Request: fold
Amino acid sequence: MKRPTYTLSSIIKKVFRSGERSLPREEICSRLEASGLTTGFGMDGSALLAKVLRMEQAPVKVGRSEAIIELTYQPHQLFDLAYRFVRDTHMPKTLEQIAAELRRQTQFGWNQIMRMLQLERDPRFVQYQGDGRWFLAEWTLANDQVYAFCRANGITQVAARTVHHFLEQEVGVADDAMFLPALDDRFRLDGEILYIIARDGDEEQSQAGLEAAAAVETADETKPEADSAEAGHTAADVKDAGQSGTSQQQSTDGQREREAQPAQNHTHRHQEVHEQLHFEEELSMNTVQTQSVLEEVQQLLRQALGRLESRNAEMAQEVVAHFQQSNMQAIEVLMKEKHKNEQIALGIQQVLTTTEQQ
Reply:
């Protein structure tokens, strides 16, 4: 069973509440056990804490005594700027993406930022296993909510380009919630389609739902037969009444005409309602299509931004290589390219921010 799971150091950071700088070792272990965050790691809270303490960039350290555990985080301008950047864009970011933004906002060089910005120590940032991006600890996870909604409504697939609209308008996912289908085996992205996969006991529930639906269909099929039999009896009664005399036949015909008139009116009203629903459906489809185009453009812009940032990371390595060879001309060319890329990336980021606010 694959689900989005915090890294070990992120689990420890989640234990600390806002404003807490240190905690008794026993309290940390107690909170770990109560939170259920250690499930699936095959170790208790004490063993998990001991493993994190041995990490090179551990977010915690032993305090004045072995019984006290302290955060290793030290406040700095760069951490605060990184936090605001991720919070304002409301998107998880890689360390390189954050560093590129801080490079634009401050006078610090790339190497300085990468050396000083140790987000492993900042309790405001967390990571999920298998995902190199940094999330905010205050954000929640929407995977369970999305899965439950899809199963309850019989939804088995969603167009990838409409996922954002689907989460916001139909599922009602909160603004501070993240949806991570790539880390969850209940979802599978295949090309342009996001598939919802039944897991655990959902198959039995689905079968029960199918049986209930079959029972409803059987009842619906039986009802027309009963209606038909009733109509046959009515016709026979009318026929017998018609044989009693001409005057009674005329009276019956007049009654039929009067009964037929409301039926015709009902049919006319049904057609009007159907046309209105068809119009509203077309209007809704046009709105969804417009939203889908916007989301597709946003996705392409994010891909372009990622490629620019990847190229900047590659150039950083190339600069080191040229520096070792004393090739200053090549370094100058790379620096010009890097500056141009940063300007383009800034423009793309501004466009993305504008579209996300609409």
Remarks:
- The beta strands are 22-24, 60-62, 68-71, 125-126, 135-136, 140-141, 157-159, 177-178, 187-190, 193-196.
